[in-house]
Amino acid sequence: ASLQTVIRELVVEHSVAHQETWHSTPTPVSKVQGRLLIGRASDVPQPLPSRLPNADKEVAYVLMSEKPVLAVDDDSETAPREDVLTLKLPQGKKGQKQFLEAVLPQSMRFVRSQLSKGVAVCICCDTGKDASVGVALTALQAFFDDDGQYLNAPNEAGRGELTRTHPHQGL
Q1: CA–CA gap between residue 159 and residue 123 (Å, rounded)
Q2: Is 18 helix (H, G, I), strand (E, B) or coil?
Q3: Which one of 37, 46, 52, 75 is separated from 83 by 20 to 30 angstroms, measured CA to CA?
């Protein structure tokens, strides 16, 4: 076999194995019955599954990374998925500013939209311990009550800022 054939076969084998395997499954937030999950962007399989492993629950994705997370298939002419939000997030001070001004507002609109459809949301960043946790905490505060129940219609201020009626609000 030619070198080109061997390389092609290795790439196909790796692609097939990578497509269906989670390197490490995302961690569900148990307080909200796993409607939010936190993970590392490099752990998600490609193509992204529309259901979680060992569960019959639909899942959408917020993928935040300094580098592209999803492989681009040049032969594919499929439309972007409505259940995936990919956001570039640089490291350092520039990333912190972008997180507050762009990533957090965009991800909250997306998370609200998915939760309102009954879809769980897997929130991933490069480490699984940084921006993904910030987005998940904001979503917990904005879209769930203290008992972990989904708030069907969170209040919105006129400028699009997230607010909510909460027994401890104003303290």
Answers
A1: 25
A2: helix
A3: 75
pTM above 0.90, yes or no: no
Single out the residue of 41, 42, 45 nearest to residue 14, CA to CA.
45
For 139, phi then psi, to 5°, come to -65, -40
Give the whole-angstrom CA distance, residue 79 versus residue 67.
21
Give the three-class secondary structure for 91: coil
- Per-position DSSP letters for 65-130, written without gaps between them: ESS--SPP-TT--PPPPTTEEEEE--SHHHHHHHIIIIIHHHHHHHHHHHHHTT-EEEEEESSSSS
- CB atoms under 10 Å from CB of 139, counted, come to 26
27 - beta bridge partners? 38
| Residue 106 vs residues 25, 109, 123, 150: alpha-carbon distances, Å | 24, 5, 13, 20
Contact 48, 61 (CB under 8 A): yes
Q: What are the pLDDT tens digits along the chain (171 aa)?
A: 777 776 666 554 444 334 457 888 899 999 999 999 999 998 988 888 888 877 778 999 999 998 877 765 544 555 678 999 999 988 877 778 889 999 999 999 999 999 999 999 999 999 999 999 999 999 999 999 999 999 975 544 333 344 444 444 443
Contact 135, 64 (CB under 8 A): yes
